[in-house]
Amino acid sequence: MQIKIHDIEWKTGKVKGFLAKELLNLENGSLKLISAEPGNSYPMHTHPDKTEFAYVLEGHPQFKIGSSTYESSPGDCFIFPQKEHHAIINHTGGNCLMLIGAIKSV
Fold first, then answer.
1. What is the pLDDT of residue 1?
2. Per the database record, which ranges form the Cupin type-2 domain (predicted)?
3. How far is 48 from 60, CA to CA, in rounded Å?
4. Tens place of pLDDT per residue across the chain (106 aa)
5. pLDDT for the residue 14
6. Is residue 36 within 8 Å of 90, Cβ to Cβ?
7. In angstroms, how far is the first alpha carbon of the chain from the final one?
8. Nearest to 97 by CA among 64, 59, 70, 67
9. Domain residue spans in the chain?
10. CA-to-CA dists, residue 74 to 12, 37, 50, 56, angstroms
């Protein structure tokens, strides 16, 4: 199966400044292309039934995982364990582009 990302519309997410293109949505997991606009942040939250990950494609978003804060660069990957509080912050002047995936626990 081929996915032509340019043919998928950007959708406004639950949080202002975060746009998504859904690439995969299965019962046990998902994968989205996420664009975080400058100066926006996805607030601390947790997932009771899944582990999430973020792979940075462009920009330098900041990730908060539990009590730790991480700066990032393209090519960095972060894991958000199930039930662990996490947030994504774009404190830069440009867009940040990430692949965000989730795997539900069995």
1. 82
2. 35-99
3. 27
4. 888 889 999 999 789 999 999 999 999 999 999 999 999 999 999 999 999 999 999 999 999 999 999 999 999 999 999 999 999 999 999 999 999 999 998 7
5. 84
6. yes
7. 26
8. 59
9. 26-104
10. 23, 16, 24, 5
Q: Which tokens go with 20? A: 């998504």
Residue 22 in tokens: 């859904």
Yes or no: say if 96 and 63 are a contact pair by the CB < 8 Å rule: no
SS3 7: helix
How far from 73 is each of 31, 33, 46, 84, 90, CA to CA, in Å? 20, 16, 23, 22, 12
- 50-58 and 68-71 as β-strands: parallel, antiparallel, unpaired? unpaired
CA angle 31, 62, 46 (to 5 degrees): 55
Q: What is the pTM of this model?
A: 0.93
Architecture of domain 26-104: Sandwich (2.60)
| d(C-alpha 7, C-alpha 70), whole Å | 33
